[in-house]
């Protein structure tokens, strides 16, 4: 089996972490950061070795970055809503 026909396992892990970070609110920030690091490492390894899975790694990177933005948006929305409610009464 040649090296180019292998699928990079870190790309699968990065996609899994990206999807988990989108679905789990409290732990999502931690898994998103780990997913970004894993995605970047996977992309670097794929470029060096020629393995398959670059699309999975890029998808994991996009999901992880999107999860970080989602977490920031939820925190800002929560703080804004809480301040709005506290000034009403």
Structural class: mainly alpha
How confident overall, as mean pLDDT?
91
The percentage of residues in β strands lies in under 5%
- Low-confidence segments, given as residue ranges, are none
Number of strands: 0
Estimated helix fraction: over 70%
Question: Could you state the order of secondary-structure elements as H and E?
Answer: HHH
Helical stretch tally:
3
General form: rod-shaped
- Cα distance, first to last residue? 70 Å
Q: Main beta sheet: strand number and arrangement?
A: none
State Rg. 17 Å
Please tell me the total number of domains. Answer: 1
Word description of this protein:
This protein is mostly helical and 89 residues long. The longest helix has 35 residues, at 54-88. It has helices at residues 9-23, 28-49, 54-88. It is built from three helices and no strands. It has one domain (8-88). Helix 1 (9-23) runs antiparallel to helix 2 (28-49) and helix 1 runs parallel beside helix 3. It starts with 8 loop residues before the first helix and ends with a helix.
Quick overview:
This protein has helices at residues 9-23, 28-49, 54-88. By secondary structure, it is an all-alpha fold. Helix 1 (9-23) packs antiparallel against helix 2, helix 1 (9-23) runs parallel beside helix 3 and helix 2 (28-49) runs antiparallel to helix 3.
Descriptive terms for the model:
single chain, 89 residues, mainly alpha, 3 helices, 81% helix, 0% strand, rod-shaped
How are the secondary structure elements laid out?
Layout: H1 9-23, H2 28-49, H3 54-88
Helix pairs in contact: 1-2, 1-3, 2-3
